[in-house]
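Handout, page 2. Input:
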Amino acid sequence: MVDPQDKRTSPPARDANTLPREISSRDHAARLLAAPAALVQLNPVEAKIVVSYMRPEKVPAGVTFITEGDAENTGFMVLLLDGEVVVESITVSRTEPVTTAVLGPGSLVGEMGLLDTGPRSASCTASTDIQCAVMTRQALESLIEEQPAIGAKFLLAVSARIAERYRDTQKKLKLFARLASTMQAELDKQP
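Output:
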């Protein structure tokens, strides 16, 4: 789906017949990017500028476009515009993935890959045909160079989203630890 070497910072030029649809798609993407489900820290004007550095993509249903453990194809994130994505992860002592989330329009996918070069932490599969806007690491670098204030605000917003997910994961781990402890206590009571 995404070529990490692609240095384009905006979608390819369209002919005059498709211009109104592209403008409305960009406006839609900017509204979603500035919405609470994504990066509420961006105002609509800033979101439109960020979207101008993204490129549109379509992914057919059933295609896994991010694969857990992949250390090669990491330099991008996706803003879902339409459709649903299933996020799955292989957990400790399991061989089958566990669905950790089902994401819809306005959701960000793969944002950690935009910021670091580590392997992907989960797999993402289009459960329906999806339309999305892709931000590559190269496009992010261009945004920071050309629009430093907006680039910094965008990075802070993405970082806040990652921190929010981290805190949610920590809460889940604490709950799991309490459940495991309670289960072990019940097992210890058995003769």
